[in-house]
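Wait, can you check?
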Amino acid sequence: METAERRRNLRESLIDAAEQEIAAQGLRGVKARTLADRIGCAVGAIYNVVADLDELIMLVNSRTLAALEAELLAAGRPPYLADEPRPESAIAQLCSMALAYLDFATVRRPRWRAVFEHRLPPGKSVPKWYRDDQMRLFSYVEKPVADLVPGLSDARRALLARSLFSAVHGLVTLGLEEKLQALDPRSLREQIMIVVSAIGRGLEHDPEKWAPVFGKDHASGKS
């Protein structure tokens, strides 16, 4: 077997092993010795295929983000076909994606946590490929946002999509982690639907009232 192929195989085995450890124990399971023993290699061999354990965790998190992306893509499909975008369709899409996010976090909780708990040491920058993986998720939220508030610049639409994502993430985190009050799954789903629907209806009800917030790039009128 060629050296390049061996390196690729070792790298994939290492990512698989780290993913299994995170799924079982969270980030504390990512230890060089444990991973080396699991895949049957020397500890030093790990650093021949990844720069450090931070890169390895990001590679696992990238897989998690890809799995979440697939769920959001499926959930974000328009509820019905229409020649023109409709506000009620956009709100339904946002609610569907929010619930898909909750389901994903519930089923894959340790891996979901790892995406948000992992921190790089001071002075170390997040690589572009990983930022791209993160930013791509917001693009699925941007489409219904564009239908609700037409005329936004790309930058403002992206910012609003991230804010909506953050709001849902906050609800999911508080609900699943029981930070404030324990909620049964049904109640948590209901609360997420209420909040997302209220935000969506607020955005589409009277776009003109958002002009002072969004600025001159906001075009009047609704889809």
Observations:
- The chain has two domains: 1-50, 54-214.
- Residues 219-223 have pLDDT under 50 and may be disordered.
- Residues 17 and 38 are 7 Å apart (CA to CA).
- The radius of gyration is 21 Å.
